[in-house]
Amino acid sequence: MTRFDGMTAESIADAGGAPAVVVFDEVGSTMDEAHRLAERGAADGTAVIADVQTAGRGRHGRRWVSARGAGLSMTVIHRGVDIPGLDVLSLRIGLALAPVLEPYAADRVLLKWPNDLFVRGRKLAGMLVEARWREAAVEWVA
Predict the structure, then answer these.
(1) Angle at 121 (CA atoms; ends 125, 87), nearest 5 degrees
(2) Strand (E) positions, 1-142?
(3) Confidence band (pLDDT; 50, 70, 90) for 1?
(4) Which of 56, 86, 119, 139 has its CA 20 to 30 A from that of 131?
């Protein structure tokens, strides 16, 4: 699949200012695909999105599945992340996303510690951060 919600991967990348976007109709895990791309040198800001995710994961190894048309599964590769901020990165992502998503939501977007966004008591999004290290340095974060 090269389209998501009627947009091509290229138009999504252009709209979001990403160097590249890889689109899947169905994938086991966007996180796993992002790690594979990062291992092959994908640029900072490269995004992986899917309509269906069958083997995603949440905190504590919980399984995360998204059904067709029920949302967006997305992982973004970040390089150059400082180690001191890594432990609260999911919280920082949530704080950045809430005001961006709020104009599209039915009500206020609230952050639930440590990594979920909620609207009217229902989960809107969850942020999971995984780092890959090379010796003592973070090589990338997905």
Answers:
(1) 45
(2) 3-4, 7-8, 21-27, 47-57, 63-66, 73-76, 110-112, 116-119, 122-126, 131-134, 137-141
(3) low
(4) 119
Tell me the C-alpha distance between 33 and 19, whole Å: 16
- To the question of pTM greater than 0.85 for the whole model, the response is yes
Q: Tokens in use for 50?
A: 């899917």
Mean pLDDT of 100-129: 93
β partners of residue 57: 63
Mean pLDDT of 6-30: 94
128's tokens: 């999971």
User: Which one, of 142, 94, 139, lies nearest residue 116 by Cα?
Assistant: 94
Nearest CA-CA partner of 77 in 33, 41, 45: 45
Q: Is the backbone of residue 59 left (phi > 0), alpha (psi -120 to 50) or beta?
A: beta
Query: How far apart are alpha carbons 72 and 126 in whole angstroms?
Result: 11
Which ranges of the chain does DSSP label H, i.e. alpha helix? 9-16, 30-39, 83-86, 89-101
